[in-house]
Structures are given as C-alpha cells and as structure tokens.
Amino acid sequence: MLQQRCNPAQCPGYIEQQNLTRVSQFFLLGLSDDLELQPLLLGLFLSMYLVAMLGNMLIILTVSSDSHLHTPMYFFLCSLSLADIGFISTTVPKMIVGIQTHSRVISYGGCLTQMSFLILFGCMDGMLLTVMAYDRFVAICHPLHYSAIMSPCLCCFLVFMSFLISLLDSQMHTLIVLQLTCFKDVNISNFFCDPSQLLHLACSDTFTNNIVMYFVGAISGFLPISGIFFSYYKIVSSILRVPLIGGKYKAFSTCGSHLSVVCLFYGTAIGSYLGSALLPSPRKDVVPSVMYTMVTPMLNPFIYSLRNRDIKSALWRLYSRTDYS
C-alpha cells in the first residue's frame, strides 16, 4: 500500500507525522461496519442496481423499437437512460463486490478512474436534464416551429455538447486531485471516491484546490439549473396565457415527469455537495450519496414510464409483439 515517504512538513497539523506517506490505495468505509448488516446491504443494493439497469435498458429498447417515439424528446430520454446506466455502474458494482469479498480496498488509479467517470456521468445527467427542459420550452412556447428548431442535427449537437462539457468538468476535477501527493489518512468515509473527501485527506495546502474545485462544481451545477429555471419560467408564462383549463393541464402534464426527475436529482446532489463543502464529518454524506447515485437512476425510468402515456402505449405494443412471437 505504501510507496514513498513524504516530507512531514507538508502536513504540520497531523500528529503521526512519522507515518506520513504516499499511498497506492484507499479504503472505502461504505455505509456500515456492522457485519450482520452486510448481507442485507448486499441484497438491497444488488436489487436496486438490477432494477435500475432493467428499467433504463427497457426505456432504450422501447424508444428504439417504436417509430412513434422517434422524436427529440425521447431521443434525449434515451441519452439520459444511457447516462444513468453509466452513473450507477460506476459505483454500485464495486461496492457489491467489496461487500461480497469483505474487501474495501481501491487502488489509487482505480479511485481516480471511478471519480472521473462518476463526475462525467453525473454532470451529463444534469446537462441532459437542461437540454430536455429546452426541448419542452420549444414544444410549448413555439409549437409551430418545433420540428424546424429541434432538427436531428441540433439534437445530436446538444447531446454531444453535454458530453463534451461533462468530460471537461470531469478532467478538471481529476487534474486537481492529481496534484495531491500526500495523504494523512487512507480511509474514505463513503462507498465511492468522493473528490471533496480526497481534498480533506490531503496533506498539502488545498485551499486553492478547494476554491477551484467548488467553483467548477458550482458553475457546472449553476448553469444547468439556470437553464432549467429559465425554460420553465417561459413555459409557465406561456401556459398561463392559455384560456382553456384543459389546455393548461395538457401542457403542464408534459413537463411533470421531467420536473420530478429534476427535483429528485438536484435536490439530493446539491444537498450532498453543499454538505461536504460546509460541514465535513464522517459518513454524513452517505445517505444523500445513495439517493443521487442509486435511487435517482433507479426511479427515472419509472417516473417517465408511469407518467407518460406514449411510453406506456409503446411498452404495451412491445409486450404484445413479444407475446405473439
């Protein structure tokens, strides 16, 4: 585990300076140390992972196999499902294997890789939710020009830019963590490699890195949220001008699923992010982390399928074709 001894002067506040070393691996403390709870946690998180994978793959299969759903809205929904599959697969399989083998070790390179992909898919989730809000804005506020505005080229461009911005955000966080050479502890109080916790464990002066990391995180979170708020401000303003109550309800109903996912994702993510920044303490971030890394990707397909008449009809047609064949 230990590679090279660091200079104790790099970590003046650490008591055991003689043990200050560079590390080649970390220990993910997970949710609980209680051995009796491990089988329960294994069954719970394995079930959640399988449900999330099945639900998101079913959304992708349904949209791709039904020509009625070959529209921008469902193209973005497929992209969101792919991002959710990547998001939950970054953390949960490692945790399940760790519980099964009673090993909490993750290599330094594995930790950086996990962190990089987690930020990539997490940021992409946020960017795609913003793109979907823009799609609803165009559909409700400019219905006559919807097909011309939301062309296939623009849809692909928006998804590509979402990926590019997410990749940039991920690499910036990774570069910041790569500058940390010595750590006063190897225990990470979570079930995945959280960049904010790695900064807290670092021995070198991380004030500048903290400022840069939280600034980048704030920008990558603030811009999508601003886009969503602006889109829904325009949507609500447009709907309020509709004279018929039935027309208002129909317009609002098309946004209900998206709003539910936005509140679930950003509510848990911002709570965990601000909590780790303002009140760092062991394992207090675990529950919010479970919410936005596991519960949100698991619930997204059900929110969209249960509240969406087109998806339910397409699922029934897919089931009927499979049943008859």
UniProtKB/TrEMBL annotation:
Residue ranges spanning the membrane: these are 40-61, 73-92, 112-134, 146-168, 211-233, 254-274, 286-306
Q: Which InterPro entries match?
A: GPCR_Rhodpsn (IPR000276), GPCR_Rhodpsn_7TM (IPR017452), Olfact_rcpt (IPR000725)
UniProt entry tagged with the keyword GTP-binding: no
| Superkingdom | Eukaryota
Q: How does it sit in the membrane?
A: Multi-pass membrane protein
Name one matching Pfam family. 7tm_4
User: Where does this one sit in the cell?
Assistant: Cell membrane; Membrane
Every G-protein coupled receptors family 1 profile domain range: 55-304
- Which keywords label this protein? Cell membrane, G-protein coupled receptor, Membrane, Olfaction, Receptor, Sensory transduction, Transducer, Transmembrane, Transmembrane helix
Write down the CDD domains for this protein, in alphabetical order: 7tmA_OR7-like (cd15234)
Task: Please give the function described in this protein's UniProt entry.
Answer: Putative odorant or sperm cell receptor.
What PANTHER family does the annotation carry? OLFACTORY RECEPTOR (PTHR48001)
Q: Which family does it belong to?
A: Belongs to the G-protein coupled receptor 1 family.
Q: What is this protein called?
A: Olfactory receptor
